[in-house]
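Here is one chain, start to finish.
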Amino acid sequence: MKHMNKMVSRLGGFSSGASLGGKVLRYRKKQNIYTQGEPAYTLFYIQEGGVRLTARTKHQAAAVTAILGVNDFFGELCLSGYPLRMSTAVALTASSIRTIKKEKMLQILRKKNKTSNSLVAYLLSSVKNYRDHVAELLTSSAEQRLARVLLRLAHLNKNRPALVEIPILSHQVLAEMVGTTRPRVNLFMNRFKKQGFINYDGGLEVRQSLRKVLRSR
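Its structure:
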């Protein structure tokens, strides 16, 4: 699998996205989708490609908060009444992204059918993933956090394939996601490669065996 649009789906109920309505727009690699502080009237669903979210505070540089792939939503905070974008969204690769108006999504949620149930489950999972990420920052080593990020990007868990390929991300981006320095990410990535947990060949191959790092102390 050579592109992020062939990643394993985390939300199979929206494989086509057609049930969500809205319109599909195409974005070039590195093209801005929206900018932090802009009005938030819509949310987005990735059908092909990938997206990077970054956020900045007044006195700090922008930090990567998420790398998203096919079947992921973003911009969903508008459903909770947030009037402005809390992050900046940029296409990682050429991407096809469905844009859904806030009012339309709220209508879907109120119908209480298969589509709405899948969406609610996804949103609840997103909240849990955020809380897990905060806990990881407090309790895991930088090496373990990097392993978790790579496994998450590849959508690998115990029930998934043994190998998934994702586009190569810069070590600086990975360092921002993990909360460490680029030299340490370089060190860990080289270690993972020597141990056979990852490999580089156009994309980045992530192997299920990388989970062993999570069990080490």
